[in-house]
Protein backbone atom coordinates (compact mmCIF):
# COMPACT_ATOMS: atom_id res chain seq x y z
CA UNK A 1 0.00 0.00 0.00
CA UNK A 2 2.79 2.45 0.94
CA UNK A 3 4.54 1.62 -2.33
CA UNK A 4 1.32 2.47 -4.21
CA UNK A 5 1.14 5.92 -2.63
CA UNK A 6 4.80 6.47 -3.48
CA UNK A 7 4.04 5.70 -7.15
CA UNK A 8 1.06 8.09 -7.04
CA UNK A 9 3.24 10.87 -5.60
CA UNK A 10 5.91 10.38 -8.28
CA UNK A 11 3.29 10.30 -11.05
CA UNK A 12 1.61 13.47 -9.75
CA UNK A 13 4.90 15.39 -9.66
CA UNK A 14 5.92 14.30 -13.16
CA UNK A 15 2.48 14.96 -14.67
CA UNK A 16 2.22 18.35 -12.95
CA UNK A 17 5.58 19.43 -14.38
CA UNK A 18 4.81 18.29 -17.92
CA UNK A 19 3.32 21.50 -19.34
CA UNK A 20 5.94 23.60 -17.54
CA UNK A 21 8.87 21.69 -19.02
CA UNK A 22 7.31 21.74 -22.50
CA UNK A 23 6.81 25.49 -22.18
CA UNK A 24 10.36 26.03 -20.93
CA UNK A 25 11.75 24.59 -24.18
CA UNK A 26 10.19 27.52 -26.04
CA UNK A 27 10.44 27.27 -29.82
CA UNK A 28 13.56 25.09 -29.84
CA UNK A 29 11.61 22.20 -31.37
CA UNK A 30 8.78 21.81 -33.82
CA UNK A 31 5.63 20.81 -31.82
CA UNK A 32 5.12 17.68 -33.92
CA UNK A 33 8.77 16.71 -33.48
CA UNK A 34 8.47 16.98 -29.68
CA UNK A 35 5.33 14.87 -29.69
CA UNK A 36 6.54 11.89 -31.72
CA UNK A 37 9.95 11.90 -30.01
CA UNK A 38 8.64 11.90 -26.45
CA UNK A 39 6.07 9.20 -27.11
CA UNK A 40 8.57 7.04 -28.95
CA UNK A 41 11.03 7.27 -26.04
CA UNK A 42 8.21 6.90 -23.49
CA UNK A 43 6.92 3.80 -25.27
CA UNK A 44 10.42 2.30 -25.30
CA UNK A 45 10.73 2.92 -21.54
CA UNK A 46 7.43 1.09 -20.99
CA UNK A 47 8.28 -1.74 -23.41
CA UNK A 48 10.22 -4.01 -20.98
CA UNK A 49 7.39 -3.79 -18.44
CA UNK A 50 4.82 -4.52 -21.16
CA UNK A 51 6.76 -7.54 -22.45
CA UNK A 52 7.09 -8.91 -18.91
CA UNK A 53 3.33 -8.51 -18.41
CA UNK A 54 2.54 -10.31 -21.70
CA UNK A 55 4.83 -13.21 -20.81
CA UNK A 56 3.46 -13.45 -17.30
CA UNK A 57 -0.13 -13.63 -18.59
CA UNK A 58 0.80 -15.68 -21.69
CA UNK A 59 -0.91 -13.16 -23.97
CA UNK A 60 -0.38 -12.72 -27.73
CA UNK A 61 -1.41 -10.09 -30.28
CA UNK A 62 -3.62 -10.72 -33.30
CA UNK A 63 -3.76 -8.60 -36.44
CA UNK A 64 -6.94 -7.00 -35.10
CA UNK A 65 -5.18 -6.07 -31.88
CA UNK A 66 -2.36 -4.34 -33.78
CA UNK A 67 -4.87 -2.40 -35.91
CA UNK A 68 -6.72 -1.32 -32.77
CA UNK A 69 -3.49 -0.16 -31.12
CA UNK A 70 -2.59 1.73 -34.30
CA UNK A 71 -5.98 3.50 -34.34
CA UNK A 72 -5.64 4.40 -30.68
CA UNK A 73 -2.14 5.71 -31.33
CA UNK A 74 -3.46 7.85 -34.18
CA UNK A 75 -6.17 9.37 -31.96
CA UNK A 76 -4.31 9.61 -28.66
CA UNK A 77 -0.80 10.49 -29.85
CA UNK A 78 -0.82 11.81 -33.41
CA UNK A 79 -4.00 13.89 -33.09
CA UNK A 80 -4.59 14.62 -29.40
CA UNK A 81 -0.99 15.23 -28.36
CA UNK A 82 -0.29 17.41 -31.41
CA UNK A 83 -3.19 19.63 -30.34
CA UNK A 84 -1.81 19.47 -26.80
CA UNK A 85 1.66 20.59 -27.86
CA UNK A 86 0.16 23.44 -29.91
CA UNK A 87 -1.87 24.46 -26.85
CA UNK A 88 1.31 24.71 -24.77
CA UNK A 89 2.85 26.89 -27.50
CA UNK A 90 -0.09 29.29 -27.68
CA UNK A 91 -1.21 29.69 -24.06
CA UNK A 92 -0.12 29.47 -20.42
CA UNK A 93 1.16 26.12 -19.17
CA UNK A 94 -1.05 26.30 -16.07
CA UNK A 95 -4.18 26.83 -18.17
CA UNK A 96 -3.38 23.80 -20.34
CA UNK A 97 -2.73 21.70 -17.22
CA UNK A 98 -6.00 22.67 -15.52
CA UNK A 99 -8.22 22.36 -18.58
CA UNK A 100 -6.67 19.07 -19.69
CA UNK A 101 -7.32 17.62 -16.22
CA UNK A 102 -11.05 18.01 -16.92
CA UNK A 103 -10.98 15.29 -19.61
CA UNK A 104 -13.10 13.09 -17.32
CA UNK A 105 -16.11 15.13 -18.50
CA UNK A 106 -15.66 13.94 -22.06
CA UNK A 107 -14.70 10.42 -20.99
CA UNK A 108 -18.10 10.20 -19.31
CA UNK A 109 -19.91 11.47 -22.43
CA UNK A 110 -18.06 9.15 -24.84
CA UNK A 111 -18.48 6.18 -22.50
CA UNK A 112 -22.22 6.81 -22.52
CA UNK A 113 -22.44 7.28 -26.30
CA UNK A 114 -20.01 4.57 -27.43
CA UNK A 115 -20.09 1.96 -24.66
CA UNK A 116 -23.58 2.49 -23.25
CA UNK A 117 -22.21 3.04 -19.75
CA UNK A 118 -24.71 4.69 -17.39
CA UNK A 119 -24.39 8.28 -16.23
CA UNK A 120 -25.04 8.70 -12.50
CA UNK A 121 -26.15 11.77 -10.62
CA UNK A 122 -22.65 12.26 -9.22
CA UNK A 123 -21.33 12.32 -12.82
CA UNK A 124 -23.74 15.13 -13.73
CA UNK A 125 -22.79 17.08 -10.60
CA UNK A 126 -19.11 16.63 -11.46
CA UNK A 127 -19.76 17.68 -15.07
CA UNK A 128 -21.57 20.85 -13.97
CA UNK A 129 -18.84 21.85 -11.52
CA UNK A 130 -16.09 21.19 -14.07
CA UNK A 131 -17.81 23.33 -16.72
CA UNK A 132 -18.17 26.22 -14.26
CA UNK A 133 -14.52 25.78 -13.29
CA UNK A 134 -13.39 25.88 -16.93
CA UNK A 135 -15.35 29.09 -17.53
CA UNK A 136 -13.64 30.70 -14.54
CA UNK A 137 -10.17 29.50 -15.60
CA UNK A 138 -10.46 30.97 -19.10
CA UNK A 139 -12.36 33.98 -17.65
CA UNK A 140 -14.86 34.28 -20.48
CA UNK A 141 -16.06 37.74 -19.35
CA UNK A 142 -12.60 39.32 -19.61
CA UNK A 143 -10.74 36.77 -21.65
CA UNK A 144 -7.05 37.63 -22.04
CA UNK A 145 -5.92 34.16 -23.03
CA UNK A 146 -5.11 33.14 -26.58
CA UNK A 147 -8.32 31.86 -28.15
CA UNK A 148 -6.26 29.51 -30.33
CA UNK A 149 -4.55 28.13 -27.21
CA UNK A 150 -7.87 27.45 -25.48
CA UNK A 151 -9.32 25.81 -28.62
CA UNK A 152 -6.23 23.60 -29.04
CA UNK A 153 -6.43 22.62 -25.36
CA UNK A 154 -10.08 21.62 -25.61
CA UNK A 155 -9.48 19.70 -28.85
CA UNK A 156 -6.63 17.85 -27.14
CA UNK A 157 -8.84 17.12 -24.13
CA UNK A 158 -11.77 15.82 -26.20
CA UNK A 159 -9.64 13.59 -28.44
CA UNK A 160 -7.67 12.23 -25.48
CA UNK A 161 -10.95 11.31 -23.80
CA UNK A 162 -11.93 9.47 -26.99
CA UNK A 163 -8.58 7.67 -26.85
CA UNK A 164 -9.26 6.68 -23.23
CA UNK A 165 -12.72 5.30 -23.99
CA UNK A 166 -11.52 3.55 -27.15
CA UNK A 167 -8.79 1.87 -25.14
CA UNK A 168 -11.17 0.23 -22.68
CA UNK A 169 -11.49 -3.10 -24.52
CA UNK A 170 -7.78 -3.62 -25.26
CA UNK A 171 -7.05 -2.58 -21.67
CA UNK A 172 -9.45 -5.25 -20.39
CA UNK A 173 -7.71 -7.82 -22.60
CA UNK A 174 -4.05 -6.85 -22.17
CA UNK A 175 -3.93 -4.39 -19.28
CA UNK A 176 -3.39 -0.64 -19.26
CA UNK A 177 0.39 -0.88 -19.40
CA UNK A 178 0.44 -2.89 -22.64
CA UNK A 179 -2.29 -0.77 -24.23
CA UNK A 180 -0.43 2.45 -23.42
CA UNK A 181 2.96 1.14 -24.55
CA UNK A 182 1.70 -0.15 -27.90
CA UNK A 183 -0.43 2.91 -28.68
CA UNK A 184 2.53 5.17 -27.78
CA UNK A 185 4.93 3.28 -30.05
CA UNK A 186 2.58 2.92 -33.01
CA UNK A 187 1.25 6.48 -32.63
CA UNK A 188 4.77 7.91 -32.68
CA UNK A 189 5.71 5.81 -35.74
CA UNK A 190 2.57 7.06 -37.52
CA UNK A 191 3.60 10.63 -36.73
CA UNK A 192 7.08 10.04 -38.13
CA UNK A 193 5.55 8.73 -41.38
CA UNK A 194 3.27 11.77 -41.57
CA UNK A 195 6.26 14.04 -40.89
CA UNK A 196 8.12 12.45 -43.80
CA UNK A 197 5.15 13.17 -46.09
CA UNK A 198 5.61 16.89 -45.43
CA UNK A 199 8.89 16.73 -47.38
CA UNK A 200 6.95 16.02 -50.57
CA UNK A 201 7.14 19.35 -52.48
CA UNK A 202 3.40 19.52 -53.17
CA UNK A 203 2.47 18.84 -49.55
CA UNK A 204 5.07 21.30 -48.25
CA UNK A 205 3.87 24.03 -50.64
CA UNK A 206 0.23 23.45 -49.67
CA UNK A 207 1.04 23.76 -45.94
CA UNK A 208 3.00 26.97 -46.50
CA UNK A 209 0.22 28.41 -48.66
CA UNK A 210 -2.31 27.66 -45.90
CA UNK A 211 -0.13 29.42 -43.33
CA UNK A 212 0.69 26.14 -41.53
CA UNK A 213 4.44 26.52 -41.81
CA UNK A 214 5.11 24.36 -38.73
CA UNK A 215 3.58 21.42 -40.65
CA UNK A 216 5.86 21.96 -43.66
CA UNK A 217 9.06 19.92 -43.78
CA UNK A 218 8.71 18.85 -40.13
CA UNK A 219 12.23 18.37 -38.73
CA UNK A 220 13.25 15.03 -37.26
CA UNK A 221 16.56 15.79 -35.57
CA UNK A 222 16.99 19.57 -35.37
CA UNK A 223 16.77 21.83 -32.31
CA UNK A 224 18.87 19.79 -29.91
CA UNK A 225 21.28 21.78 -27.76
CA UNK A 226 22.78 21.50 -24.30
CA UNK A 227 20.53 24.29 -23.03
CA UNK A 228 17.24 22.50 -23.78
CA UNK A 229 18.42 18.88 -23.50
CA UNK A 230 17.68 18.50 -19.74
CA UNK A 231 14.08 19.68 -20.16
CA UNK A 232 13.66 17.55 -23.28
CA UNK A 233 14.94 14.41 -21.55
CA UNK A 234 12.77 15.14 -18.51
CA UNK A 235 9.67 15.25 -20.72
CA UNK A 236 10.58 12.17 -22.78
CA UNK A 237 12.07 9.88 -20.15
CA UNK A 238 10.63 11.35 -16.97
CA UNK A 239 7.05 12.33 -17.77
CA UNK A 240 6.19 10.06 -20.70
CA UNK A 241 8.30 7.11 -19.56
CA UNK A 242 8.76 6.98 -15.79
CA UNK A 243 5.55 8.94 -15.09
CA UNK A 244 3.33 6.49 -16.96
CA UNK A 245 5.29 3.51 -15.64
CA UNK A 246 4.67 4.65 -12.05
CA UNK A 247 1.02 5.30 -12.91
CA UNK A 248 0.49 1.68 -13.94
CA UNK A 249 2.64 0.34 -11.11
CA UNK A 250 0.32 2.21 -8.74
CA UNK A 251 -2.68 0.52 -10.35
CA UNK A 252 -1.20 -2.86 -9.41
CA UNK A 253 -0.98 -1.96 -5.71
CA UNK A 254 -3.97 0.31 -4.97
CA UNK A 255 -7.49 0.80 -6.34
CA UNK A 256 -8.24 2.66 -9.59
CA UNK A 257 -10.16 5.30 -7.62
CA UNK A 258 -7.11 5.92 -5.46
CA UNK A 259 -4.85 6.22 -8.52
CA UNK A 260 -7.25 8.78 -10.01
CA UNK A 261 -6.18 11.14 -7.21
CA UNK A 262 -3.31 12.03 -9.56
CA UNK A 263 -5.77 14.06 -11.63
CA UNK A 264 -7.24 15.54 -8.46
CA UNK A 265 -3.93 16.98 -7.28
CA UNK A 266 -2.57 18.02 -10.69
CA UNK A 267 -4.93 21.03 -11.21
CA UNK A 268 -3.70 22.39 -7.87
CA UNK A 269 -0.01 21.57 -8.09
CA UNK A 270 0.57 22.45 -11.76
CA UNK A 271 -0.53 26.14 -11.51
CA UNK A 272 1.54 26.61 -8.34
CA UNK A 273 4.62 25.16 -10.04
CA UNK A 274 3.93 27.24 -13.16
CA UNK A 275 3.78 30.35 -10.98
CA UNK A 276 7.08 29.49 -9.29
CA UNK A 277 8.97 28.32 -12.38
CA UNK A 278 7.50 30.32 -15.27
CA UNK A 279 5.85 33.21 -13.46
CA UNK A 280 2.41 32.33 -14.85
CA UNK A 281 -0.13 34.67 -13.24
CA UNK A 282 -2.57 33.30 -10.67
CA UNK A 283 -5.60 35.62 -10.77
CA UNK A 284 -8.59 35.12 -8.49
CA UNK A 285 -10.69 33.75 -11.36
CA UNK A 286 -8.18 30.97 -11.96
CA UNK A 287 -8.12 30.06 -8.26
CA UNK A 288 -11.93 29.96 -8.16
CA UNK A 289 -11.97 27.82 -11.33
CA UNK A 290 -9.47 25.37 -9.85
CA UNK A 291 -11.65 25.07 -6.74
CA UNK A 292 -14.70 24.24 -8.87
CA UNK A 293 -12.75 21.63 -10.86
CA UNK A 294 -11.47 20.08 -7.62
CA UNK A 295 -15.02 19.99 -6.28
CA UNK A 296 -16.09 18.28 -9.50
CA UNK A 297 -13.33 15.70 -9.12
CA UNK A 298 -14.33 15.06 -5.51
CA UNK A 299 -17.98 14.64 -6.52
CA UNK A 300 -16.91 11.96 -8.99
CA UNK A 301 -14.19 10.20 -6.98
CA UNK A 302 -15.43 10.32 -3.39
CA UNK A 303 -18.77 8.38 -3.61
CA UNK A 304 -17.21 5.20 -5.11
CA UNK A 305 -14.37 5.31 -2.58
CA UNK A 306 -16.80 5.65 0.33
CA UNK A 307 -19.03 2.90 -1.08
CA UNK A 308 -16.04 0.56 -1.43
CA UNK A 309 -15.00 1.33 2.14
CA UNK A 310 -18.51 0.63 3.47
CA UNK A 311 -18.50 -2.73 1.68
CA UNK A 312 -15.05 -3.56 2.97
CA UNK A 313 -15.86 -2.85 6.64
CA UNK A 314 -18.54 -5.59 7.07
CA UNK A 315 -16.30 -8.02 5.17
CA UNK A 316 -13.38 -7.22 7.46
CA UNK A 317 -15.61 -7.63 10.51
CA UNK A 318 -16.85 -10.97 9.19
CA UNK A 319 -13.29 -12.17 8.58
CA UNK A 320 -12.32 -11.08 12.10
CA UNK A 321 -15.23 -13.07 13.55
CA UNK A 322 -14.26 -16.15 11.53
CA UNK A 323 -10.65 -15.81 12.63
CA UNK A 324 -11.75 -15.50 16.26
CA UNK A 325 -13.96 -18.58 15.87
CA UNK A 326 -11.10 -20.61 14.37
CA UNK A 327 -8.83 -19.47 17.20
CA UNK A 328 -11.40 -20.59 19.80
CA UNK A 329 -11.72 -24.00 18.14
CA UNK A 330 -7.96 -24.46 18.00
CA UNK A 331 -7.65 -23.43 21.65
CA UNK A 332 -10.38 -25.89 22.70
CA UNK A 333 -8.75 -28.70 20.70
CA UNK A 334 -5.35 -27.91 22.22
CA UNK A 335 -6.87 -27.98 25.73
CA UNK A 336 -8.58 -31.30 24.97
CA UNK A 337 -5.35 -32.79 23.64
CA UNK A 338 -3.53 -31.61 26.75
CA UNK A 339 -6.11 -33.30 29.02
CA UNK A 340 -5.83 -36.55 27.05
CA UNK A 341 -2.04 -36.52 27.40
CA UNK A 342 -2.34 -35.86 31.12
CA UNK A 343 -4.74 -38.80 31.55
CA UNK A 344 -2.42 -41.09 29.58
CA UNK A 345 0.54 -40.09 31.70
CA UNK A 346 -1.40 -40.77 34.90
Description:
- The structure is a single chain.
- By secondary structure, the chain is mostly helical.
- The chain has one domain (2-309).
- The chain is 81% helix and 0% strand.
- The protein contains 14 helices and no strands.
- It is globular, with a radius of gyration of 25 Å.
What composes the largest sheet?
A: none
Which H/E pattern describes the elements? HHHHHHHHHHHHHH
List segments where confidence is low: pLDDT < 50 over at least 5 consecutive residues.
none
Radius of gyration: 25 Å
Q: How many angstroms separate the termini?
A: 54 Å
Kindly state the percentage of residues in helix.
over 70%
Label the structural class: mainly alpha
* Percentage of β-strand residues: under 5%
Query: Can you count the helices?
Result: 14
- Quick check: average pLDDT? 83
What is the count of distinct domains? 1
What general form does the structure show?
Answer: globular
Number of strands: 0
Short key terms for the protein model shown above:
14 helices, 346 residues, globular, mainly alpha
Describe the structure concisely.
This protein has 346 residues and is mainly alpha-helical. The protein is built from 14 helices and no strands.
What is the element layout, followed by pairings?
Blueprint: H1 2-24, H2 31-57, H3 63-90, H4 93-100, H5 104-115, H6 121-138, H7 147-166, H8 168-174, H9 176-197, H10 201-209, H11 229-253, H12 256-259, H13 262-277, H14 284-345
